[in-house]
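This is your field. Have a critical look at both lines of this record:
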Amino acid sequence: MSEHLPALQIVVPMIAAPICVLLRRRALVWPFALAAAWTSFGSSILLLRRVLQSGPWSYAMGGWAAPYGIEYRADAAGAFVVFFVAALGAIVLTYAPRSVDREIPRGKHHLFCAAYLLCMTGLQGIAITGDLFNVFVFLEISALSSYALISLGAERRALTATFQSLVMGTIGATFILIGVGLLFMMTGTLNMVDMAQRLQPEGQRTALVAFAFLSVGIATKMALFPLHLWLPNAYTYAPSVVTAFLAATSTKVSVYIGLRFIFHIFGESFAFERMPLDATLMPLALMGIVVASAVAIFQTNVKRLLAYSSIAQIGYMVLGISLATETGLTGGIVHLFNHAITKGGLFLAMGCIAYRIGSVRREDTRGLGRRMPVTMFLWVLGGLSLIGVPGTAGFVSKWYLVLGALQSGFWPVAVLLLLSSLLAVAYVWRVVETAYFREPPEGSKREEAPLSLLLPACALIAATVYFGFETSLTADVAKTAASQLLGGRP
């Protein structure tokens, strides 16, 4: 079975999804879905270990060798993304039963599990496939299932948010498909490795057009400023579990798609010399960091606050790409993981608060530091990681990004990165001030969320502290991935 790990990473959740619909009964669906998610996580660990020990792994589906057959290809970057998507998927689904029971009618639980597992399938498939058409297929699987998940929100505005996400997502996917079609027209292949060898983008206007379409499409999918308008409402009105999973994984996988196209297919010389991509990405990344962080300060809904924070954090990842150096790219890649665990933990903590007090409005968190001390302590630790305080995972990311900016001679960028942390302090502090320095409503009592909700949130927040000190998995793997991406075409 170990020889088929790349296929199992896709097959297990994909087959489990329709089985959940057939099982229907809640008592059967949840254990089965959890078993599928944790099996996927276990195989992702084995996959990552194999790739780190032996190098990139090519797997021919059905025994048909690439480029004629469909290839799954796992290198350090892809295996790393598969690992944290599977990890977040398993942990968040473990958190889900009680939270979903409160927010989604029981008659739809089997549909929720099916859509959730399909979303996991799509996100993991994007990271592991070596075929560009399958990138689009898996992108649509994850997108369509995420629209279904967002629409399950209790408020009617969840449907509006879903429609907005669908329209923007469809535009982004269409741009990506056009770009892929143009590349296929130029090379006659859809296999990434084969395409990278055949593609000679220098001096070809078709390559310029394909690059432009792909850049805009991927930027829309990752919610890069100013193409981010679909994200705040989606995160705000989706069920707590859905928000936690999508915020931790979806946009990160889109950033990964950008890495693949820029460094493996077109090559950094074309992207950053022939097409000065850094001159576009760096200003947009910095504007996203500053503007989204400033907007977050004035939000009264904490889920919406965290949504704008996510837009700012995407700016950090894109900034690492725009530096196009090993240190900067390491910072961008490691931030994929660090932000995933941090934001996943924060949204799970907000899910605990919503479960207990029935609201996520900042005004309703008055005195919550005394009413739900453990939950608020977790939220504060996650907030410190967003700020980038030493001893948290967020600090590691920002350290590499600041070093990368200084090594490239962009000292104003390094200064702006440090100043942007002050904006994070401001929006995190507004929640802390309300929870700890405002009096709780009369008659309120101390009552924590159930352990089934607290423990998964604790696991993710504890991981933000652990990986703030132990960087052998995150920063070292990110450095290996950055080295491979900058080492030329595969």
